[in-house]
Amino acid sequence: MVPGVRTSPAALWAAASTYLALAGTNLRRQLTYRAANLAGLITNLFFGALRAYVLIALFGAREQVAGYSVRDAVTYSGITQALMSCVAIFGWWDMIRSIRTGEVATDLSRPVDYFWYWCALDFGRGVGQLALRGLPLVALYVLAYRITSPPTLWHWLALPISLLLGLFVSFAWRFLVSLTGFWTRDATGIGRLAFMLAYFFSGLLMPLAFFPDWAASLLRLTPFSAMMYLPSEVYLGVVRGPGLAAALAVQALWAVALYALARVVLAAGVRHLVLQGG
To answer: pLDDT tens for residues 229-239?
Structure first.
């Protein structure tokens, strides 16, 4: 069940404090896995360097490709590698596992909203991954390469907004995929297919600008670009002026759209669970 909406300032503050506490709990949990985080950082650095040298070879003697300099492209490989674990681009199985094992009944009975409960936990995880893997990887890139920095104050200000929106869009997408577990015995297969789509279309392999123009224009309008590609373009300063506002608007629109869709599917899933005697 989903608790009723409470609008008093005290209730809103109490709810916000609860979700912040949940996020903090999961953040502290991430900090305990030192060996796993170190291994993940080394793995990300290896594949990040591999991607960087592939892009350097792609440029050859050319100064620019699709508006990217070789320095921009190397920086792009570092930024996307840094965000990869933060937005869980390779998958997220916690909620699918809770539905499969029946723990979802306990989750739904908690005195907190089901969506925001999982969102708070995921934000704690994402912030932990960014702090423990993402930022150290960017620091190592600074030492190894001459990477690009956000060119203007507006890009610096827009960057944290874009990162938060990217994480939220990623979570909402993963939440929707996980909800299929209400109708299937095990949603792991559906999850693998869905997360593979995000892997290919989020710009992780290469900047979407390197795709044919028609494909790049189409992929920029999908929720996948909002997860890593648009934050990376904000960082690089590839989008400027109206383009910067448009990038944030695309992310915000997908955040609202996926949240609204998640609410509808969640309500249907809970009804199905009740009818099935869950």
So the answer is: 999 999 999 88
Q: Determine how many CB atoms are found less than 10 A away from the CB of residue 266.
A: 19
Phi/psi region, residue 215 (left: phi>0; alpha: psi -120 to 50; beta: rest), is: alpha
State which amino acid sits at residue 118.
W
pTM for the full model? 0.84
Nearest to 87 by CA among 175, 218, 179: 175
Residue 220 to residue 10: CA distance in whole angstroms: 40
Count of Cβ atoms closer than 10 Å to residue 211 Cβ: 18
Is-contact 96 235, C-beta < 8 A? no
Nearest to 204 by CA among 91, 80, 68: 80
241 alpha carbon, distance to own chain's centre: 24
What's the token pair of residue 232?
A: 């990376």
DSSP 110: S
Distance between CA atoms of residues 50 and 205, nearest Å = 11
